[in-house]
Each structure stands twice: as C-alpha cells, then as structure tokens.
Design brief:
binds zinc ion, single chain, mainly alpha, 9 helices, 262 residues
Length: 262
C-alpha cells in the first residue's frame, strides 16, 4: 500500500478536526501574546462587541460566508483567522500524505499545529511564548522514547535538545558581544531546543540550514517588494523559519549535505 494512502487512513481524524483546531490555534495566536485566557474561544466582534453566532464561528466557511466582514458593523475580520484555519488543514493533509509509517502522521500533525501557532505569533509579535515552545521538548522526547519506529532515539533527542538550545544561545551571546545589542532571542533558542527533541542532534544542522536559507529568501523578497536595499539589521521573525525547517526535517529527515536533498 502506498505510504500516503496508509497515512490518510491513520490521519483522517486529524483532517476532520483540523479546521476546528485551526480556529482554536487562531484564538491562541491572538490571546497568548496579550495574556488573555484561552479557555473561551472567539466570542465577540472586537470592533462592535456583537456576540458571534454559529455561522461567524464556522471555521473557514464563516469568513467566506461573511465575506471577511462583521455581520453587524461591517468591520473587516482579521484575515489571520481563515489563514490559520487553512494552515491547520494544510498541516494535517501534509502530515497524512508525507508517507510516515504507523502513528507518526498523528505525532507530526500535532507538532505541526503547535509550530503553526508559534509561526503566526512570531510573525505578528516577534515573540515565541514559553507556553508553546517548552511543552514541545517533553513531547519530542516522549515521541523518541515511546513511539515505535520513530527515526530518532531518546538519547539523540536529548542531546539534540541541549545542542539546539546551546547553538542559538551561543550565536546570540556572540552577536551581543560583537554588536552590543540583542539580535536573537531566547525564544528562538527554546524553539531550536524543541526542534532538537523532535529531529535529534543529527537533524539540527538541516533545520538551521533550511531556516537560514528561507529567512534570507524572505528578507530578499521583502526588500525587493519595498524597493529597498537589504538591511542586515532589519528585524526578522526567525521563529517562522525555524518552524518551517523543523517541520520539513520531521517529515523528510535530515538533508543529505552531499546531494543537498532530503
Ligand atoms: Zn462588528
């Protein structure tokens, strides 16, 4: 049986749940940086305070049916809601068809959803909340220790956690010494520590390489679109790219640096 069919057989509950999980992730992404409680979902229009009905709260379709505007006051609905909901669906589908054996698609999907929320928050707030990064460390170690045929052993995952944190912390320390200001946050170090727990120390170099290349590409595209020169001091939500790198290495394994392919 083709790997992706098997993946769909295991992963269909994740696909079915994805739009609702996405709706929750969007709420998390909006509320966590403001320190607001997560238990209650989106309940009122932030512009006019009208209570939202079932149609408004329908993942993806709510935004389409309301044409992107509040039904009462016509204020635009933040497009981050449908984007994160669509992203959660894409993560579930990608995890299902990536050809991972056994229960791995489920574990990968859960990680992918957390990475999606982190990327969304870092993109908007330049922030990677501990509430999201730190639990990914024991989760990765658990996957390494308990999941059958998981490609990373528990010791490799533990070494990866420490090495991931040390690598970014070291770069940040060096940057501070050389430039006299903070360039890389501890949030990035905690996220790479979590990445190390999931991909092992063997996958860390791949995560860093993919993140760095994607970050440089994004900075170039942004500079070109704005018609400016590339500014090395410009702030970059590096967590977005770390999340992408982690995701790709979890799905496809470390990059073979001789062929530069997975
Ligand atoms: Zn409104």
């Amino acid at each position: 049986m083709a790997g992706w069919i098997a993946g769909l057989k295991t992963g269909w509950p994740m696909l079915a749940a994805a739009p609702f999980v996405g709706s929750f992730l969007a709420t998390v992404a909006f509320r966590l940086p403001r320190g607001e409680p997560l238990a209650l979902g989106r309940s009122r229009c932030p512009a006019c305070g009208t209570a939202l009905g079932p149609v408004d709260l329908l993942p993806l379709f709510g935004w389409v049916l309301r044409r992107g505007h509040c039904n009462s006051c016509r204020a635009p609905i933040d497009p981050a809601y449908p984007l994160i909901e669509a992203g959660a669906l894409a993560v579930a589908a990608w995890a299902a068809v990536a050809g991972l054996p056994g229960w791995q698609p489920i574990a990968a999907c859960a990680l992918g959803w957390a990475l999606l929320a982190l990327a969304a928050i870092d993109h908007r707030h330049y922030l990677l909340p501990d509430t999201l990064t730190l639990p990914l460390i024991p989760a990765g170690l658990l996957a390494a220790g308990a999941m059958p045929v998981w490609p990373v052993g528990l010791v490799d995952a533990a070494v990866g956690t420490v090495a991931g944190f040390a690598a970014i912390w070291g770069v940040g320390w060096l940057y501070r010494r050389l430039r006299g200001r903070d360039g890389i946050g501890l949030g990035d170090a905690k996220l790479l520590a979590a990445a190390g727990a999931w991909v092992g120390w063997q996958g860390l170099a791949s995560v860093v390489m993919i993140s760095a290349l994607a970050g440089i590409a994004a900075a170039l595209v942004t500079a070109i679109r704005r018609g400016q020169r590339l500014d090395p001091a410009a702030r970059l939500p590096f967590g977005v790219f770390l999340a992408l790198g982690t995701w790709l290495v979890v799905l496809y394994g470390p990059v073979d640096f001789r062929t530069m392919a997975f």
